[in-house]
Structures are given as C-alpha cells and as structure tokens.
Amino acid sequence: MTSQQQGRDGVFQPLEESDPRTVAGYRLTAKLGSGGMGKVYLSYTPGGRPVAIKVIRPDFSEDAEFRRRFQQEVQAAQRVQGLYTAPVIDSDTESAQQWLATAYVPGPSLAAAVAEHGPLPVPAILLLIAGMAEALHVIHGAGIVHRDLKPSNVLLAADGPRVIDFGIARAADATSLTGSGVTVGTPAFMAPEQAAGRAVTAATDIFALGQVASYASTGAPAFGEGTSHGVLYRIVHEEPDLTGVPEELRELVTRCLAKSPRTGRRWPRSSTCAATPTARRSCAARRTGCRVRWPPTSPYGRPRPPPTAPRRLRPPRPRLRRPRPPRPGRPRRPHR
C-alpha cells in the first residue's frame, strides 16, 4: 500500500464523496494516498497527535485468510519501536472494516524527492542506507519481513529516514485475491527469490535495500523499467545496471544485490550497515570529505505541517512592572 506520498503539489488531497469522514471515532481531514490494498487518510488522536490511518479495501477485509494474517502482522508490528520506523498507534482487526493507524511522518517520500530534485548526494545516501538498515534490523527482530521495501515506502523526515508499511504485504500474500489483479510487492524492487515465487527471508529486504540505494543515487531502478514480466526476468537472470552509482557506494550496493540469498552472499544481517548517528555522520564525512546535509531536500524548503493541525496555545506571560526607585528630592534650603 502506498502511504504518505509527497507529490509536487503536496501530500494532502481533499476528501472525495466516496471517502469516509470518520473511522472508529477518528475524524479524517485529508487523503494521503491510495494503493492496491486500500487508502490512507490523515487524522488526529484526542491529544492532537497526527496519525496516518490505512483503511483496508472491503474485498480484502471479507477474505478470511487475509483477516487472519492481517491480525498477526498488526500484532507483530506493534512490537516494532525503532527510531527509523513509523510506530503503530491504534488498529482494528476484528470489525468488518479493518484499519491501522501509524504515526504520521512529515516529509516527502524518497520517490517524490528523487523525482522532483534528482539523485541524492553521496553523504545523504550513506545516512539513508544506515537508517534503512537500522529500521530493517528492528523489523526483522520482531519476526517481520517487509516484502515491499521501495522508494515510496521510505519517508525523509527531518531527523532521518522512516521505513513504513512493513509486514502489510504478507497479509495479502497467498490469499484468494492475489490472482485478481493485486500484486504483492513492487516488481521493480523485488528480490530474485521473491520474483520466482520462492520463500522470502530477511535477505529479501536486504536485496530491496540495495535497489533503493541504487535508485537514490541514479534516479532509476537498478534492473530498468518496462513490463512486469520483463523486469522480473532481468532481476532473476541478469546483473543490475550500476553505471550511475558512485564509487563510494558500489561495493555496498553490489553485495546487497547478490542473486543468492544465502548468508554471506548478501549482508548476513541488516545490522551490518547500522551504527550510531555519530558514527554514521563521521563515516559519511570521512568517505566523502564534506559535511552531511539532512534532510537532503532541505534546500528546497521544510515539509509543510498537516492541515487543520491543532495549534498549541501558550499561556500569556504576566507583565511584571518593576517598582521604580524614588527620585532623589532636591535639598531644601533652611529657613533663615
């Protein structure tokens, strides 16, 4: 499901007549995006915190296998509390209309940023890779395989990237609806084992990480574009096109894009790329010889705040008047 996509004209879309106005007490104020599994809306918690509510399509909600898997994935996603993920805040997996609420992340998606401003500089890509790897390490620790890591599922927040929509694709996998025009995963960013219909593991997400890094540095998918069948064939049988990938990233991206998912071919663990924020910044500066700018789109303006966001009212400061000292009087002349 595509979520929180920031386009050229902004991320917020007005609600249409077919869109609901409330979901389980949450008042919807705008539409953030839509995808094959449902739509995403902007709302607020009672405390005023903005959230992104993913409303599942009715035909998915009516599928018994999907409902079972969706409930399992939501329970697992609630255990993910990483710094570079969007945590699950609320959900309803029992009612006829299933939905999931995650923290709203202000900022464009990587896909929108690259489409509007071009490829990212190398220091920003190094931070992007480290943030995504740390997010995958937390996601895999919760027993979840993302299965659909792509540029539109990576948001560029002011303090680092955010990986979203983890685990949602598994709920739709192998249900009765996957053969009715709904694709689980994005073909251009699939791993060879995923494209061939074999079992997916954490290494599948590492392959996607390499594809996302290549896209961020070149502005194009590593295995080209075109029909889904052609792209999937190249992913399984051909080598990626890394012509525009900078030399500083070539070894890392090449290892992530190894055809075999066996341990040692790709990065054996997603935590291999992760490090502390200080180490990431110093590593990027040392490799490139320049300072790191984040977010990479900051020269083009900060992300806009959500519409109709509740304003924080500050109590007025009392004005205290300091007593003025008495003026010294003129000395009186003594009477003669």
TrEMBL record:
InterPro entries for this protein: Kinase-like_dom_sf, Prot_kinase_dom, Protein_kinase_ATP_BS, Ser/Thr_kinase_AS
Region (Disordered), start-end ranges: 287-336
Keywords noted in UniProt: ATP-binding, Kinase, Nucleotide-binding, Transferase
Biased composition (Pro residues): 296-309
SMART domains for the chain: S_TKc
Residues annotated as binding ATP: 54
Composition-biased stretches (Basic residues): 311-336
Single GO molecular function: protein serine/threonine kinase activity
Coiled-coil intervals: none
Every Protein kinase domain range: 26-279
The keyword NAD is annotated on this UniProt entry: no
SUPFAM superfamilies per UniProt: Protein kinase-like (PK-like)
Pfam families: Pkinase (PF00069)
Designated name of the protein: Protein kinase domain-containing protein
